[in-house]
Amino acid sequence: MIRLLTYLRPYWRQVLLGVILVLVEAMSNLYLPNLNAAIVNNGIARGDLGYIIRTGAFMLLVTLLLGVCAALAVYNSSKVAMSVGRDLRGDVFRKVQGFSQAQVNRFGVSSLITRTTNDVQQIQMAVLMGMNIMLFAPFMAIGSIFMALRQDAALSWSIVFLVPVLGVLLALNLRRVVPLFREMQVKIDRLNQVVREKLSGVRVIRAFVKSEHEEQRFGKANADLTSTALEIQKHFALFMPLQFLVINLANVIVTWVGSRRVDMGAMPIGNLTAFLTYIMHILFSVMISVMMFSMIPRASASADRIVEVLDEEPEIGEPSAAGVMDDADAGVQFDRVEFAYPGAQAPVLKDISFRARPGQVTAIIGGTGSGKSTLVNLLPRLYEVTGGRIMVDGCDIREMPLKELRDLIGCVPQKAVLFSGTIASNLRYGREDAADEELWRALSIAQAADFVKAMPGGLDAPVAQGGTNLSGGQRQRLAIARALVKRPKIYIFDDSFSALDFRTDAALRQALMKEVEDEVVLIVAQRISTIMNADQIIVLDQGRIAGIGRHAELMEHCEVYREIVRSQLGEDEVA
């Protein structure tokens, strides 16, 4: 929590202004009972109407000053709180952008969403309330105690009784509540996770008739969060009546003792009313302090979770000195590459060595879980190799700036991801200055021009979040077109033809090969028909290379490849 206070540093002028405004507001509040006591003691007792009017007019001016300062203080603190929230969200988002896929998986997507939204909102509220309540309450409490002592020292014993008792009650309450607030944030993560899984997997849930099961999962997570929130509110619900009981008892005793002192002539009646007002100010200060302290534990828990993200160093960092790509014809080279997921007992990939040259199509095939997608994800450094090296044009990718490396790559992932917007905005995602003619050319190569022309608006046709208003094949073809618009040096097609029928697949590959004659092309595929004509086929088996060569060569020398072919083609086709 203390570390996040550094986010207030750029706004120190506004913070200082807020302190001044709150101080003036508190002093105005403290001065009003004195003026009221003066009217009672001097104006009403003497029957001096002019004094009452003059003092009353001055009270109105002080009240007006109080109102203006209060409004300006709230506006100023709101502006600072929203600015701090904006900066904090931006820093968390930028930090997460630099995480490797393994780090994202370790935190969890639902948790990162909660930390960027709900947790930052808790910090915002803490700053907002802190600049008003946290400053105002101590000024009012200390000032009211001092002013009450000035009214009548003999009645001040009630304050000596009141403040420690309220402090003990507040400390006991916070001792129980702070752990519950930390637990509550974890349960919000869990609820977000369940909702996210429900929404993203709605088709699977309906297909397996598991709606009732998912409702029970959600109900359990929801009830768990609700029970923790109720437990917190129970503590505060118990504290508030106890607080009022102590305050009102003190009020009754002060009124009784004070009335006797007024009756004996030991103190003016105006001083008694002012003393009671200061007692109420102390009550008000304690009440708003409780509101503040109810937020601080939750904000503290949120701050710890945010700092955990901000302190996490990206596993994939920028090189200290940029390497030089000195061999334009070298293409992509994997040199004894090994990779293991964090916490895994054994590497997923072992001793992977091959070269993919410009102008050649390198296909990667293998059984499920053989490491095909993992292999191509190492090239743009979504994961970092744990052994060996990967080189692009003679330069180790770890010595290349990430932006420079990823600008060289056009990736079509296994799951075609489209963003909400239009067809054109999605196609220009890799190159914003692409002309409409280039977009149509890419769509034509990707066999997507016909269905885009048929859509209302053409290139300006809307795309829903995730491309849910398009079929799987349409999404794949648009993702391929997006990569073509970028015009990279290296193309990665990670099983990106799987949703296409054989005819569209063949037409697309034929048009694609003419377009990428001088680039490095890596194709991950399950279908033999997709990769049969590749210049180089790499067969993976349990994370190792079982064979490298063209189709005919592998049919002769690689048993793993022959088994894959037999599983997809008939004996006549194999022959």
Helix-strand layout with pairing:
Layout: H1 12-46, H2 49-97, H3 101-107, H4 109-151, H5 157-200, H6 202-207, H7 211-263, H8 269-311, E1 332-339, E2 349-356, E3 361-366, H9 372-377, E4 387-392, E5 395-396, H10 402-407, E6 409-412, E7 421-422, H11 423-427, H12 436-445, H13 449-454, E8 462-463, H14 472-486, E9 490-494, H15 502-515, E10 520-524, H16 528-531, E11 536-541, E12 544-549, H17 551-557, H18 559-568, H19 571-574
Parallel strand pairs: 3-10, 3-11, 6-9, 9-10
Antiparallel strand pairs: 1-2, 1-4, 4-5, 7-8, 11-12
Helix pairs in contact: 1-2, 1-4, 1-8, 2-4, 4-5, 4-8, 5-7, 5-8, 7-8, 12-14, 17-18
Low-confidence stretches: none
Task: Tell me the number of strands.
Answer: 12
CATH class of the largest domain: Mainly Alpha
> Which architecture of the largest domain per CATH?
Up-down Bundle
> Do you know the CATH topology of the largest domain?
ABC transporter transmembrane region fold
Largest sheet: 6 strands, mixed
Gap between N and C termini:
70 Å
Give me the oligomer status: single chain
Give the strand content.
5-15%
What would you call the structural class?
Answer: alpha/beta
Average predicted local confidence, pLDDT? 83
